[in-house]
Amino acid sequence: MIGALIGDIAGSRFERHNCKSRDFAFLTPACHLTDDSVMTLAVAHAILESDGDRESLSRQAVEAMQRFGRRWAKGCYGGRFTRWLYSEHPQPYGSYGNGSAMRVGPCAWAAESLEDALDMARRVTMVTHDHPEGLRGAEAVTAVIWFARQGENLETIRKRVEASWYRLDFTLDEIRDTYAWEVSCQGSVPQAIEAFLEADSVESAVRNAVSIGGDSDTIAAMAASMAEARFGVPETLRERILAFLEPELAEVVARFEERFPESRVLSKS
Question: What domains can you pick out in the chain, each with its CATH number?
Answer without folding.
Answer: 2-262 (1.10.4080.10)
